[in-house]
Amino acid sequence: MHTPTYLAAELRLPTNGLDYTILGIYFAVVLGIGFAARRSVKTSLDFFLSGRSLPAWITGLAFISANLAATEILGMAANSAQYGAYTVHWYWIGAIPAMVFLGLVMMPFYYGSKVRSVPEMLLLRFDKWAHLLSSALFAFAAILIAGVNLYALAIVVEALLGWPQWVAIVVAGAFVLAYITLGGLSSAIYNEVLQFFVILAALIPIVVLGLKKVGGWGGLTDKLTHTHGANFTTAWGGTGIGSANPLGANWLTIVLGLGFVLSFGYWTTNFAEVQRALSAKNLSAAQRTPLIAAYPKVFIVFLVMIPGLVAAAVVPGFGTTKSGYQYNDAIPYLMEQLLPNGVLGIAVTGLLAAFMAGMAANVSSFNTVFTNDIWGRYVVRGREDAYYVRFGRLITVIGVCASVGTAFLASSFSNIMSYLQTLFSFFNVPMFVVFIVGMFWKRASAKSGFWGLLAGTVSAMVNYFWIYKHGIIDIPSDQGANFVSAIVGFVAGAVVMVAVSLFTRPKPAEELEGLVYGTRSPGMSEPPAAGDDAWYRRPALLGWGAVVLAAACYIPFSF
Amino acid sequence: MTDQHGYSEHDVQREVSELQQKSATAARIFDLRRIIGALFVVYGVIVTIAGITADQAEIDKAQGVNINLWTGIAMLLLGVFFLVWLKLRPTPPTVPEVTEEDLQDKPPTP
What we know:
The structure holds two protein chains of two kinds.
Chain A: H1 17-38, H2 44-49, H3 56-67, H4 70-83, H5 89-92, H6 96-112, H7 118-125, H8 128-161, H9 165-213, H10 216-228, H11 251-269, H12 271-278, H13 283-314, H14 330-338, H15 343-379, H16 385-410, H17 416-440, H18 448-468, H19 478-503, H20 539-554
Chain B: H1 2-5, H2 9-22, H3 25-28, H4 32-52, H5 56-61, H6 67-88
Helix pairs in contact in B: 4-6
């Protein structure tokens, strides 16, 4: 996520008709899903939340896929080629605890209160100012991120397949536009589930052949220890406070900045993720959505990290000008070196599918927030339901066109991915602090939400643009700075909320039912559906199982 | 304050519950297992054939592994798994489908 996404021009893949057939079949299926899902759209709830009716395995896999955009795949492989096994932190400490927290603690409030979006939750808990600010920030960020996904796709397609950038942007934009406008969220989610399996089929052969090339895991670690030092293949080596490591972060900023603030902000309050769980058919399925996603998440790190490490081991000076390859080239490089036609087509399809799904997740959450939370609440209120479905389709078209615009805008920056990571710390972290204080402290007043959100956003920006960029405090890397921005935004938001709450009136207790920890809403008391009481479907067991598994995975990387 | 933003949790509960009763997704959405199954069977067959007809250059490129054959078989098995799952546990029947004339502004049929 740290390095620019442009790829070396020598990576043109030897694709042939077989590969293009595989790609063509995928595009046809994507459109077919859109057309077939269209007849299930009758109400606005169908269009924006799949009628709250999907089973847990579908929403769970869509939850992981919405995150598994190609920027994540290429970016995390790049991270591994650059920083080594530190990448595991983004998964085992930077994702699993937050996903489990979302499923076990927060989902009863989200799903039980029947809100349709994350900002709507803030409307109930705080007031319309917090609601409007969070809706606007989210809609803005979603379009920016969708555009970056589109731009990243265009660069990769240009390098790998030789299509001009504008062709790739327009083609991918048109497909995403078509299937979301037709089938709404159901169409987006179904395509995400399909993409999950295609991505696995793309990455597993690369990992297997990559490991064979370097003589297995043992051969890989021997080579990397020789060339990059012993810390390169460990998770915690060199992360003591004050000791230097390439990540520019120590164990404290990793645990607090990445593991707590950044990751909880992303996984628990980013509506592009939470929306998948809100479309589940009942509370049990909604709770299990992030928990089912947590299990693949524990292992996906190997599928992105090993290609990065193999590339670093095979090519001397990989990622530096000496080799002629960027860090982001890790996976495309191995595709070119190892995959024959056929599997190569699957891998190209997987990458394109991942880019489109990453964009679609942002577009489908953007149209929901814009229609329900901004347009339907403050601009045109009280129209019939069909009007909002039509408006949702219209705003999808506008949103995709705006993303095409931000994609061309993104192309004028050389290092957009690093800024994008920074944007996450601006937009997700303040939202998270407002949520967590509002949920656990019933004294937090209606006014405190808006001011906490504003203070958190502004202070994270001040930390990044002024304190870090002007070198007031010396932080060695952008990633390290992102961790610090996140902590600063969190603390500032929390302090301002407490201060404002002390000087303003609390919300009456009866308005907090089902919104504050320890209270219950009517939706929470629904009995589990038949079969949901089976032991393997119990959220607590699934959740703690994922935490234990992630902790166990650390053991071989810690000594 | 309810009067400040004119909206409380009860309004959301009521609004979403009404929409959920009229929702058509549960009744009309197709079963995704059929699509995944069909796509992976097709992909599996294509890639397996590419593996069977692979020449030595392709196998050498892939570190001596006939990767098309193995990936193809694995994808085929995944596709078959989804189709078998669909066969064994078919889509559960849903409540009778509400007809076209039941449009937005009418109250939900009891």
